[in-house]
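Morning - nicotinamide-adenine-dinucleotide inputs below, output right after.
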Amino acid sequence: MVSVSRRHFLAAASAASFTSMTSLGRAAEANDEIRVVVIGVNSIGSTHLNGFPKIPGVKVVGACDADSAVLGKRAGEFDKKFGYKLKTYEDLRRVFDDADVDAVVVGMPNHWHGLATVWGCQAGKDVYTEKPCSHNIWEAGQMAKAADKYDRIVQVGIQRRSFTHLRDFFSEVQQGALGKVKNVKGLYLSRRESIGNPTSPPKPLATVNHNLWCGPGSTKLERAKYHYDWHWFWEYGNAELGNNGPHILDLCRWAIGAEEFPTAVSSVGGRYVWHDNGQTPNTHLLRYEYAKAPITFEIRDLPTATGKRDTCDYMGLSYGIVIEGTEGTYLGFDTGKVLDPDGKVVREITGNTGTDGGRQLHRENFVKAVRSRQTSDLNCPVATGHLSTALCHLGNISHRTGQAVSLASLPERIQDQPLMTDAATRMTDHLAANGVDVATAAVELGRTLMIDPKTETFPGDEAANRLLRREYRAPFVVPEQV
Ligand SMILES: NC(=O)c1ccc[n+]([C@@H]2O[C@H](COP(=O)([O-])OP(=O)(O)OC[C@H]3O[C@@H](n4cnc5c(N)ncnc54)[C@H](O)[C@@H]3O)[C@@H](O)[C@H]2O)c1
């Protein structure tokens, strides 16, 4: 198996010489109106409904959602704001059947990103799909193949890729602006709450087509709140790591120019305090081995201490990255600052972040590529989104193939990984502040998994390789042959 990243890069380079379009779709010529449908319009999809019409030459013509209440609400708001009625669809397959649609925006949950993108490409539509790029590593390869085969433009919604000030600064970092990079730390130190523990099985919302919503995933419902809380169930979501990780880990690997899989991943984590039925960790430490510099990532979803409503920070930063170099340190997220070895701020890194948290610049970039038909014009094609998303999947695979050990034994067990030891001390102190009895509590010690970046697999590790893909619930199956 050739790595997704390499194969897609080669295919994109050769596809760049094509100017003709597949016969399946309507070709959006340079001056043509581009007709867009947004699929999944509850939260992020609603920002796309509002953002795309602001781009000259783009017309949002429809909205699709498996929840008729959400669909009706968003269509009504759109009519009020833009003065015309959207075509509405319950079933996304009808959007792909519609010859009047040029491009789709996928604002559905993670378990739908891969299949909707493949179907979209097969139907001749260009696709802007939200992060994470995929729900598992294998399906990202199918997305890349479909984009190549049908000569489609596919952008992944990791919007900071459209910040030119970060691109320029990270290029300087790679040329030594901070001296030799010793390590990069990603931080997502947030605060969330228990999602509850329903004792009797919850019922789907009356307004939702539950079969369509679940798509490739199980129809068993285990959460009280239907929307958003799916993030914390493996059938649909990818944990906080796959929720905010794609943004943060993308910055980490972009900063050092890591354009392939790491050679190893390890993790430590657990779900503490809440006693709910969410499945994914709310406290997670990850480490990725790269020859250029190791990347670590700290995730916390608990406040600084019991009863508080604030978030933790590291060097004053709650969300973002810290690049530690021999001659300076960078701290930032959308923008940032450089500190000299004495901790004095010597430079501000700022630039145009556009509107809507950078998403409008990213939408504009997508539209530019839809017009030029050049994947190379995209700031976050599948190959890029896949590499950053894969870091999340790799960390989750380490976690899910690990074993519970006592938290008190952790320092000894990870003593050969200095950056993890520091982070684990911070993690343990944080758990203690949140009322966890750290003398008796357990922690999931993820396995350290060795990775072959050429094949994007775990050599000889059947248990880990099995988690590179999922079981799909028919008929919602990402095809072997796209
Ligand atoms: N780029 C960003 O900054 C950013 C920010 C937030 C969310 N996201 C991503 O966007 C996606 C959606 O997140 P959200 O917070 O809006 O989730 P949400 O649960 O609030 O909304 C998802 C919507 O998709 C609909 N949906 C589900 N299955 C469908 C189907 N088969 N057909 C049509 N509609 C369907 C749901 O009914 C719901 O209205 C996630 O993958 C998330 O990671 C990206």
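Note: The chain has 15 helices and 17 strands.

O.
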